Amino acid sequence: MRIIAHRGASGYAPENTLKAFSLAVGMGASDFEFDVHRTKDGVLVVHHDYDLKRTAGSEARIADLAYSELRKLNVAAHFAPDPSFQAAPSLEAVLDEIGPAAGLLNLEVKNDGNVYPGIEEQLLAFLEERAGLRQKSLISSFDHGTLRRFRALSPDLRLGYLGHGLSTVLLAPALGWARAVKAVNFHMALRIAFRANVALIRKAGFNVFVYTVNGREDALRMREFGVDGIFTNYPDIMEK
Ligand code: G3P
Ligand code: CA
Protein backbone atom coordinates (compact mmCIF):
# COMPACT_ATOMS: atom_id res chain seq x y z
CA MET A 1 0.00 0.00 0.00
CA ARG A 2 1.39 3.38 -1.02
CA ILE A 3 1.79 6.01 1.69
CA ILE A 4 1.20 9.35 -0.03
CA ALA A 5 2.32 12.57 1.67
CA HIS A 6 -0.86 14.65 1.54
CA ARG A 7 -0.03 18.33 0.92
CA GLY A 8 3.50 17.30 1.99
CA ALA A 9 4.08 16.30 5.61
CA SER A 10 1.20 18.63 6.44
CA GLY A 11 0.63 17.24 9.92
CA TYR A 12 4.05 18.59 10.90
CA ALA A 13 4.47 21.70 8.71
CA PRO A 14 2.16 24.18 6.97
CA GLU A 15 0.31 22.33 4.20
CA ASN A 16 1.45 22.64 0.59
CA THR A 17 4.58 24.64 1.49
CA LEU A 18 8.19 23.92 0.58
CA LYS A 19 8.75 23.24 4.26
CA ALA A 20 6.09 20.51 4.23
CA PHE A 21 7.53 18.90 1.08
CA SER A 22 11.12 19.12 2.31
CA LEU A 23 10.10 17.49 5.58
CA ALA A 24 8.25 14.69 3.75
CA VAL A 25 11.34 14.01 1.62
CA GLY A 26 13.45 13.94 4.79
CA MET A 27 11.07 11.38 6.26
CA GLY A 28 11.67 9.12 3.29
CA ALA A 29 8.44 9.78 1.38
CA SER A 30 8.44 9.01 -2.32
CA ASP A 31 4.76 9.57 -3.10
CA PHE A 32 3.22 13.04 -2.87
CA GLU A 33 -0.14 14.74 -3.33
CA PHE A 34 -0.70 18.48 -3.73
CA ASP A 35 -3.29 20.88 -5.12
CA VAL A 36 -2.70 22.99 -8.22
CA HIS A 37 -4.12 26.45 -9.02
CA ARG A 38 -3.10 29.30 -11.33
CA THR A 39 -2.40 32.97 -10.62
CA LYS A 40 -3.85 35.85 -12.62
CA ASP A 41 -0.60 36.10 -14.59
CA GLY A 42 -0.58 32.40 -15.46
CA VAL A 43 1.80 30.82 -12.93
CA LEU A 44 0.88 27.30 -11.76
CA VAL A 45 1.00 27.31 -7.96
CA VAL A 46 0.38 24.88 -5.12
CA HIS A 47 -2.26 25.66 -2.48
CA HIS A 48 -5.41 23.90 -1.34
CA ASP A 49 -8.17 26.50 -1.28
CA TYR A 50 -9.21 28.82 -4.10
CA ASP A 51 -8.66 31.78 -1.74
CA LEU A 52 -6.19 32.62 1.02
CA LYS A 53 -8.62 33.05 3.88
CA ARG A 54 -7.99 29.88 5.89
CA THR A 55 -4.23 29.81 5.42
CA ALA A 56 -3.20 33.49 5.26
CA GLY A 57 -6.23 35.39 6.58
CA SER A 58 -6.70 37.19 3.25
CA GLU A 59 -9.96 37.22 1.27
CA ALA A 60 -8.00 37.32 -1.99
CA ARG A 61 -8.56 34.59 -4.57
CA ILE A 62 -5.55 33.04 -6.30
CA ALA A 63 -7.18 33.64 -9.70
CA ASP A 64 -7.21 37.40 -8.95
CA LEU A 65 -3.62 37.71 -7.72
CA ALA A 66 -0.39 38.12 -9.64
CA TYR A 67 2.25 35.60 -8.58
CA SER A 68 4.31 38.40 -6.99
CA GLU A 69 1.26 39.42 -4.92
CA LEU A 70 0.57 35.84 -3.84
CA ARG A 71 4.18 35.46 -2.72
CA LYS A 72 3.75 38.28 -0.17
CA LEU A 73 1.10 36.34 1.79
CA ASN A 74 1.99 34.05 4.67
CA VAL A 75 0.14 30.78 4.12
CA ALA A 76 1.50 29.51 7.45
CA ALA A 77 -0.18 32.35 9.36
CA HIS A 78 -2.54 30.00 11.21
CA PHE A 79 -0.20 27.05 11.60
CA ALA A 80 0.52 26.13 15.23
CA PRO A 81 3.00 26.10 16.79
CA ASP A 82 5.12 27.78 14.10
CA PRO A 83 3.39 30.42 11.97
CA SER A 84 6.67 31.77 10.58
CA PHE A 85 6.47 33.00 7.00
CA GLN A 86 5.92 30.53 4.17
CA ALA A 87 4.74 31.62 0.74
CA ALA A 88 2.53 29.52 -1.52
CA PRO A 89 5.08 27.88 -3.84
CA SER A 90 5.02 27.60 -7.61
CA LEU A 91 4.50 24.10 -9.00
CA GLU A 92 8.03 24.29 -10.36
CA ALA A 93 9.48 25.02 -6.92
CA VAL A 94 7.56 22.11 -5.37
CA LEU A 95 8.91 19.71 -8.00
CA ASP A 96 12.43 21.04 -7.45
CA GLU A 97 12.04 20.51 -3.70
CA ILE A 98 10.79 16.94 -4.10
CA GLY A 99 13.40 16.27 -6.77
CA PRO A 100 14.55 12.71 -7.44
CA ALA A 101 12.69 11.46 -4.33
CA ALA A 102 9.53 11.43 -6.41
CA GLY A 103 8.00 8.07 -7.24
CA LEU A 104 4.39 9.09 -7.69
CA LEU A 105 3.18 12.68 -7.98
CA ASN A 106 -0.56 13.19 -7.61
CA LEU A 107 -1.39 16.65 -8.92
CA GLU A 108 -4.94 17.46 -7.87
CA VAL A 109 -6.17 20.20 -10.17
CA LYS A 110 -8.62 22.52 -8.43
CA ASN A 111 -10.70 23.82 -11.32
CA ASP A 112 -14.34 23.77 -10.24
CA GLY A 113 -16.47 25.62 -12.77
CA ASN A 114 -13.42 25.89 -15.06
CA VAL A 115 -12.13 28.83 -13.06
CA TYR A 116 -8.74 28.42 -14.77
CA PRO A 117 -9.62 28.03 -18.48
CA GLY A 118 -6.94 26.19 -20.43
CA ILE A 119 -5.14 24.89 -17.33
CA GLU A 120 -5.29 21.38 -18.81
CA GLU A 121 -3.19 22.29 -21.88
CA GLN A 122 -0.82 24.37 -19.76
CA LEU A 123 -0.24 21.66 -17.17
CA LEU A 124 0.20 18.93 -19.76
CA ALA A 125 2.79 21.04 -21.62
CA PHE A 126 4.54 21.69 -18.29
CA LEU A 127 4.70 17.96 -17.51
CA GLU A 128 6.00 17.13 -20.97
CA GLU A 129 8.77 19.73 -20.84
CA ARG A 130 10.49 17.94 -17.96
CA ALA A 131 12.06 14.55 -18.56
CA GLY A 132 10.25 11.72 -16.80
CA LEU A 133 7.72 13.95 -15.06
CA ARG A 134 4.63 12.93 -17.02
CA GLN A 135 5.31 9.26 -16.31
CA LYS A 136 5.37 9.90 -12.56
CA SER A 137 2.24 12.02 -12.62
CA LEU A 138 -1.32 11.10 -11.74
CA ILE A 139 -3.80 13.90 -12.39
CA SER A 140 -6.97 14.05 -10.32
CA SER A 141 -9.80 16.54 -9.98
CA PHE A 142 -13.20 16.89 -8.38
CA ASP A 143 -14.20 18.72 -11.56
CA HIS A 144 -15.19 16.13 -14.14
CA GLY A 145 -15.11 18.59 -17.04
CA THR A 146 -11.44 19.06 -16.19
CA LEU A 147 -10.83 15.30 -16.27
CA ARG A 148 -12.69 15.04 -19.60
CA ARG A 149 -10.54 17.79 -21.11
CA PHE A 150 -7.34 16.12 -19.92
CA ARG A 151 -8.49 12.87 -21.49
CA ALA A 152 -9.33 14.60 -24.76
CA LEU A 153 -5.82 16.06 -24.84
CA SER A 154 -4.05 12.83 -23.98
CA PRO A 155 -5.17 9.22 -24.35
CA ASP A 156 -2.64 7.82 -21.88
CA LEU A 157 -2.28 10.41 -19.13
CA ARG A 158 -3.01 8.71 -15.79
CA LEU A 159 -6.21 10.14 -14.31
CA GLY A 160 -7.74 9.76 -10.85
CA TYR A 161 -11.45 10.23 -10.21
CA LEU A 162 -12.63 12.28 -7.20
CA GLY A 163 -16.28 12.80 -6.28
CA HIS A 164 -17.75 15.58 -4.14
CA GLY A 165 -20.13 14.25 -1.45
CA LEU A 166 -19.78 10.65 -2.56
CA SER A 167 -21.77 8.03 -0.63
CA THR A 168 -22.16 4.26 -0.95
CA VAL A 169 -25.38 4.60 -3.00
CA LEU A 170 -23.68 6.99 -5.40
CA LEU A 171 -20.74 4.67 -6.05
CA ALA A 172 -22.27 2.97 -9.10
CA PRO A 173 -22.82 6.23 -11.05
CA ALA A 174 -19.41 7.45 -9.88
CA LEU A 175 -17.78 4.34 -11.32
CA GLY A 176 -19.54 5.14 -14.60
CA TRP A 177 -18.02 8.63 -14.59
CA ALA A 178 -14.58 7.24 -13.77
CA ARG A 179 -14.87 4.74 -16.63
CA ALA A 180 -16.05 7.45 -19.01
CA VAL A 181 -12.78 9.38 -18.60
CA LYS A 182 -10.73 6.16 -18.55
CA ALA A 183 -9.45 6.90 -15.06
CA VAL A 184 -6.98 4.39 -13.66
CA ASN A 185 -7.51 5.48 -10.07
CA PHE A 186 -10.55 6.07 -7.89
CA HIS A 187 -9.93 8.28 -4.85
CA MET A 188 -12.43 8.02 -2.01
CA ALA A 189 -12.94 9.53 1.42
CA LEU A 190 -12.13 7.44 4.48
CA ARG A 191 -15.73 7.83 5.72
CA ILE A 192 -16.99 5.54 2.92
CA ALA A 193 -13.94 3.29 2.62
CA PHE A 194 -15.74 0.16 3.79
CA ARG A 195 -14.44 -3.27 2.85
CA ALA A 196 -17.29 -3.90 0.38
CA ASN A 197 -16.88 -0.51 -1.32
CA VAL A 198 -13.13 -0.98 -1.72
CA ALA A 199 -13.72 -4.47 -3.16
CA LEU A 200 -16.37 -3.18 -5.58
CA ILE A 201 -14.11 -0.44 -6.95
CA ARG A 202 -11.09 -2.71 -7.24
CA LYS A 203 -13.22 -5.33 -8.99
CA ALA A 204 -14.25 -2.63 -11.46
CA GLY A 205 -10.55 -2.35 -12.33
CA PHE A 206 -9.47 0.81 -10.51
CA ASN A 207 -6.66 1.40 -8.04
CA VAL A 208 -8.23 2.69 -4.82
CA PHE A 209 -6.57 5.55 -2.93
CA VAL A 210 -8.22 6.73 0.30
CA TYR A 211 -8.07 10.21 1.88
CA THR A 212 -7.24 11.43 4.46
CA VAL A 213 -5.91 8.69 6.72
CA ASN A 214 -4.14 10.13 9.74
CA GLY A 215 -4.53 7.37 12.33
CA ARG A 216 -2.43 4.22 12.38
CA GLU A 217 -5.41 1.96 13.13
CA ASP A 218 -7.26 3.35 10.09
CA ALA A 219 -4.14 2.87 7.96
CA LEU A 220 -3.81 -0.76 9.03
CA ARG A 221 -7.52 -1.35 8.29
CA MET A 222 -7.15 0.15 4.82
CA ARG A 223 -4.20 -2.13 4.15
CA GLU A 224 -6.25 -5.10 5.29
CA PHE A 225 -9.08 -4.06 2.93
CA GLY A 226 -6.65 -4.16 0.00
CA VAL A 227 -6.53 -0.39 -0.58
CA ASP A 228 -3.74 0.55 -3.02
CA GLY A 229 -2.75 3.83 -1.40
CA ILE A 230 -3.58 6.21 1.44
CA PHE A 231 -3.19 9.97 1.52
CA THR A 232 -1.84 10.98 4.92
CA ASN A 233 -0.64 14.17 6.57
CA TYR A 234 1.83 11.97 8.50
CA PRO A 235 4.18 10.15 6.10
CA ASP A 236 5.59 8.26 9.09
CA ILE A 237 2.13 6.88 9.95
CA MET A 238 3.24 3.25 9.83
CA GLU A 239 6.10 3.89 12.24
CA LYS A 240 3.97 5.68 14.83
O1 G3P B 1 -6.75 14.12 -3.42
C1 G3P B 1 -7.22 13.60 -2.22
C2 G3P B 1 -7.70 14.70 -1.31
O2 G3P B 1 -6.68 15.63 -1.19
C3 G3P B 1 -8.94 15.35 -1.84
O3 G3P B 1 -9.50 16.26 -0.96
O4 G3P B 1 -9.99 18.50 -0.09
O5 G3P B 1 -7.94 17.33 0.67
O6 G3P B 1 -8.10 18.25 -1.63
P1 G3P B 1 -8.84 17.64 -0.49
CA1 CA C 1 -6.04 17.51 -2.45
Q: How many strands?
A: 9
For the report, how would you describe the main beta sheet? 8 strands, parallel, barrel
Strand order of the largest sheet: 1-2-4-5-6-7-8-9
Query: What's the overall average pLDDT, rounded?
Result: 97
Q: Give the oligomeric state of the chains in this entry, treating copies of one chain as homo and distinct chains as hetero.
A: single chain
- What is the number of domains? 1
**H-E string:** EHEEHHHEHHEHEHEHEHE
Bound small molecules, by name, code or SMILES, are: SN-glycerol-3-phosphate, calcium ion
Structural class: alpha/beta
Task: Give the overall form.
Answer: globular
State the CATH class. Answer: Alpha Beta
Task: Please count the helical segments.
Answer: 10
Whole-Å distance between the termini? 16 Å
Strand content: 15-25%
Task: Using the 3D structure, state the CATH architecture.
Answer: Alpha-Beta Barrel
What do these coordinates show?
By secondary structure, the protein is α/β, with parallel strands linked by helices. The chain has one domain (2-47, 91-239): Phosphatidylinositol (PI) phosphodiesterase (TIM Barrel). The protein is built from ten helices and nine strands. Strands 1-2-4-5-6-7-8-9 form an eight-stranded parallel barrel, surrounded by four helices. A hairpin with a 5-residue loop joins strand 2 (31-38) and strand 3 (44-46). The radius of gyration is 17 Å and the shape is globular. It starts with a strand and ends in an 8-residue tail after the last strand. The structure holds SN-glycerol-3-phosphate and calcium ion. Residues 33, 35, 108 line the site of calcium ion.
